[in-house]
Design goal:
Elements (H helix, E strand, L loop, with lengths): L1 E2 L15 H16 L1 H6 L2 H28 L3 E6 L1 H18 L9 E6 L7 H26 L6 H19 L7 H8 L1 H18 L1
Parallel strand pairs: 1-3
Antiparallel strand pairs: 2-3
Amino acid sequence: MSYWGYRVIPPRRRLLHGELFDLLISWAALTLAFGANYIIQRNITGLEVSAIAVATAFIFHEIAHREVARRYGLIAKYKAWYMGLVLAVALALITAKVIGRPFVIAAPGAVVIFSYFGPPPPQVSVKIAVAGPLANIIVGVLFSIASFTTGYPWNVYLSFIGSVNLWIAFFNLIPVPPLDGSKIMRYSFTTWLALFILAMVLFFVIF
């Protein structure tokens, strides 16, 4: 989940059409992907928790990108990648069935950023790119801490929500286009390295 390039645009009203639909479709698809084990187990409560996890992870991630871009006077909206959503669900269900744990490629779409006057300066671009993974790290840590203060089964569900956030942060910080990591590295290698190590340690040490 990253953001795409900049270009001169028509009036704003034409850009906003379909964003809510794309967000809902992506939310539903990622809920199925991250909840693949719960689907196989026919665990409705678990699937509901998966929906909450995706809401805190995917939606917060994309909204963070969008709102930071808008703060700097840019026009931004989320656009789903439907083929990516299909692949994410299919791969998650297959891996959950075969190895007992879903592997999720978290690339459902991206925030598309438009500008009337060309791309913003690098210091703005890096803030936009950092916003998504940083939101996931913060939410992931908070839910992980909360999981240690509650009993079963809530600790399991809170831990799951935290793990989804930290996985999305780590995955998106991989320095491969069009992921956020490639953009952050382009503008600030030290910022990328610090975030990448932090997300990797948090995800693999905690989970």
